[in-house]
Structures are given as C-alpha cells and as structure tokens.
Amino acid sequence: MIRTAVPAEVEDIVALHARARATYYPGGLPQDGTDWLAAWQSALVRPEGRVLCVVEAGRIVGLASFRTPEGDPADTVKLFQFHVDPGHWRRGVGTALHAACVEEWQADGRRTALLDVHVDNRRAQGFYRRQGWVPEPAEPGDHHLTMRLAPAAE
Predict the structure, then answer these.
(1) How confident is the model at residue 16 (pLDDT cuts 50, 70, 90)?
(2) Residue 21 Cα distances to 45, 60, 71, 86, angstroms
(3) What's the pLDDT score for residue 154?
(4) Confidence class of residue 10 from pLDDT cuts 50, 70 and 90?
(5) What local confidence, expressed as pLDDT, does residue 48 receive?
(6) How big, in percent rounded to 5, are the helix, strand and coil portions of the chain?
(7) pLDDT, position 151
(8) Phi, psi dihedrals of residue 12, rounded to the nearest 5°
(9) What mean pLDDT comes out for the span 73-102?
(10) CB 52 within 8 A of CB 46
(11) Where are the beta strands (DSSP E) in the chain?
(12) Class of 2-149 in CATH
C-alpha cells in the first residue's frame, strides 16, 4: 500500500532513511550535524510538500519526500528523499513508489522533476536512469549529481 506518511511514523522513517543511506557510505554515515528527526518532522507537516510511504505488513519499507522549492517554477517539483529499505531492494517497491510520485506530480501539473543523488550511489543512479531521469552536467568536485525527469514528448 502506498499512502501519505503521518507524523507519528517519524522515528520509523528516520530509521529507514539511515539504513538506506548507510549502503552508499562505505566509511559509515557522515556526522554532518543534520538533525534528521527534526528534518523529517518538518517534511511531514510542510503544507507545500508530501511524504509518501510504502507499507508492507504494517511496516514502512519505502518513502519519498518532494515539494516545489522556493524560487523554482511552479511546474517543477524536487524529489528530496527517496529510500527503499535495503532488505526490500529489487522487489518492485521503488518502482511502485516512483510511479506513485510521478502520478501525483502529473495530477498537480508538475512538468519537470529534479533530484540530487550522491555521486557514489551508482545503484540509485541506475534506478533513476531506468525510470527516465537524465543527469545534468556536473561541476568537478560535486558530491551530488543533479538529475531531471521531463515529460515525454507530446
């Protein structure tokens, strides 16, 4: 089942986020001072954003957070977080969640989607490419790659 996440689920969301991010940081998650609990609490109540989750057997196994960033065109959406529990990779969870995001974006009149993915996260980059995302030119030394999902030619 794919549905909107609720604030009471924030601790489960933070734990899934940490498990997924840990897979592409070989030295362990960086301690950059980010308060992920506060960040997710904010995302869950932000009126201009959404957090969708995939629930299987009463447990969150996938999540996506997106909104139109301030200063961006109204028809653009940014996918800020997209995570599938590593124990559920290659089972269609990410593909189903991605399709739900795109469906919602299209229903809301969003024509372009953007995301940033860590340059070392080749698995995620491959997933996004299979979903139709295209990398934008990167600057040397960037730790993230920006990708764009534009509508199919009409």
Answers:
(1) very high
(2) 23, 16, 28, 9
(3) 40
(4) very high
(5) 86
(6) 35, 30, 35
(7) 61
(8) -65, -40
(9) 94
(10) no
(11) 2-4, 49-56, 59-67, 76-84, 112-118, 134-135, 144-149
(12) alpha beta
Instruction: Determine the Cα–Cα distance for residues 79 and 82; give it in Å rounded to an integer.
Output: 7
- What is the crossing angle of helices 10-22 and 36-45, to 10°? 120
Q: Which two tokens stand for residue 5?
A: 């996440």
Q: Considering the chain, what is the average pLDDT of its residues?
A: 90
**Residue 31: pLDDT band with limits 50, 70, 90:** confident
Please give the structure tokens belonging to residue 130. 């299979």
- End-to-end CA, the chain: 31
Side by side, which strands form the sheet with 144-149?
A: 2-4, 49-56, 59-67, 76-84, 112-118, 144-149, 134-135
Q: Copy the structure tokens of residue 150.
A: 């534009």
Residue 17 CA, chain-centre distance (Å), reads 10
Domain locations in the chain as residue ranges: 2-149
Give me the residue label for tokens 């932000």: 46
Phi first, then psi: what are they for 37, rounded to 5°?
-60, -50
